[in-house]
């Protein structure tokens, strides 16, 4: 057990004897690369663990309520890695069927999302690990569909969309609609599943990241030859929080994007193609002093405002993009802070 973690295990369901898990017996086992189907050691079962990392997000309670029916069916366990310092004790006590790990932030480390993800995987009992976030609610058939390519088709990594609950900067299908793609170049942990072997192959999540650690993780998976299977109908819904929280998140996303490109410079072209927003808005903010000479410079924002005219929260989207740009610049000037 590493520094900063302590374990409190609730009365979580022992699903070892459940019919659903028993059905994943030897003939259905999909081994790691190079091992033929059906070669699982005799008498063992394929287990799936859902890991949720959290800090001070009370929406965790709703997520746990929503995933509880999967226990003993599709899931062996749900493991919460919580850095709230006991603030969510009431949620822990009302969900004693879940395994709960209290995580203490190491001195000098402000954001421990990557650390908590690694701890969660290390302590999870599953052969297959599933990640989703606090505030996420699964739609019908979510977990079965997300796991089917891994259990039935030999895939190592799967991912799916997250629809916004209510209006947010992430409202609309254009954020998550990849229906024409079987594989995608990157994925986030809001809706992700993978075999433990894939995690081990890349050494887990990079703990120097405060945000975008999941993009870095899946980029490194693809660098190692793993494919990210997109499952369009394995959907979770997510509450992105208040506008203030969304803007704060955008700042950290910008910082993460900058760190990503510093670590993976050869992916700059790919990043610009997939999401140029953080870089373009960072350049805009960098050029603001030009307003002293060219008063019209801020009018450049009229172009993105017009393009975003069909967004539900177009002004919030603009603010989101500006905060991403600010995050990029902050990371350039004060990396890692």
Compact description:
The protein has 337 residues and is an alpha/beta fold. The chain is 36% helix and 15% strand. The protein contains twelve helices and twelve strands.
User: What's the story with the biggest beta sheet?
Assistant: 9 strands, mixed
Radius of gyration: 21 Å
Assess the beta-strand content as a share of residues. Answer: 5-15%
Beta strand count: 12
Bulk shape = globular
Key attributes of the depicted protein:
single chain, 337 residues, alpha/beta, nine-stranded mixed sheet, three-stranded mixed sheet, 12 helices
Question: Could you describe the 3D structure shown?
Answer:
With 337 residues, this protein is of the alpha/beta class. The protein is 36% helix and 15% strand. The protein has 12 helices and 12 strands. The strands form 2 sheets. A 9-stranded mixed β-sheet has the order 1-4-3-2-5-10-7-11-9, with helices on both faces. Strand 3, helix 3 and strand 4 form a beta-alpha-beta unit. The protein is globular, with a radius of gyration of 21 Å.
Topology:
Layout (H helix, E strand, L loop, with lengths): L4 E5 L9 H4 L25 E7 L5 H8 L9 E6 L6 H5 L5 E5 L9 H11 L4 E5 L3 E3 L3 H12 L3 E3 L2 E3 L18 E2 L6 E5 H7 L10 H11 L4 E3 L5 E3 L4 H21 L4 H7 L2 H10 L15 H6 L6 H20 L4
Parallel strand pairs: 2-3, 2-5, 3-4, 7-11, 8-12
Antiparallel strand pairs: 1-4, 5-10, 6-12, 7-10, 9-11
Helix pairs in contact: 8-12, 10-12
């Amino acid at each position: 057990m590493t520094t900063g973690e302590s374990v409190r295990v609730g009365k979580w369901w022992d699903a070892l004897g459940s019919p659903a898990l028993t059905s994943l017996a030897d003939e259905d086992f999909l081994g790691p690369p190079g091992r033929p189907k059906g070669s699982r050691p005799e008498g063992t079962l394929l287990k799936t663990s859902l890991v949720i990392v959290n800090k001070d997000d009370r929406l965790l309670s709703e997520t746990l309520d929503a995933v509880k029916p999967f226990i003993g069916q599709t899931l062996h366990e749900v493991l919460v890695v919580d850095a709230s310092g006991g603030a969510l004790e009431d949620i822990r006590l009302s969900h004693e069927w879940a395994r709960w790990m209290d995580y203490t932030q190491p001195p000098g480390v402000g954001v421990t999302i990557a650390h908590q993800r690694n701890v969660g995987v290390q302590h999870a009992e599953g052969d297959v690990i599933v990640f989703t976030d606090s505030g996420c609610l699964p739609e019908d058939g979510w977990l079965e569909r997300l796991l089917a390519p891994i259990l039935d088709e030999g895939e190592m990594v799967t991912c799916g969309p997250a629809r916004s609950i209510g209006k947010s900067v992430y409202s609309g299908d254009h954020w998550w609609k990849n229906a024409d793609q079987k594989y995608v170049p990157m994925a986030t942990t809001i809706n992700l599943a993978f075999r433990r072997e894939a995690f081990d192959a890349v050494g887990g999540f990079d703990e120097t990241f405060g945000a975008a650690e999941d993009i870095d993780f899946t980029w490194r998976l693809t660098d190692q030859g793993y494919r990210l299977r997109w499952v369009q109908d394995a959907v979770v819904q997510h509450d992105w929080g208040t506008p203030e929280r969304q803007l704060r998140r955008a700042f950290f996303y910008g910082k993460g994007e900058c760190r990503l490109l510093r670590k993976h410079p050869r992916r700059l072209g790919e990043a610009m193609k997939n999401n140029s927003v953080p870089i373009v808005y960072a350049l805009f903010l960098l050029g603001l002093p030009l307003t002293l000479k060219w008063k019209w410079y801020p009018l450049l924002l009229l172009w993105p405002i017009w393009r975003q005219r069909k967004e539900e929260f177009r002004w919030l989207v603009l603010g989101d993009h500006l905060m991403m740009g600010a995050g990029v610049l902050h990371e350039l000037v004060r990396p890692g802070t």
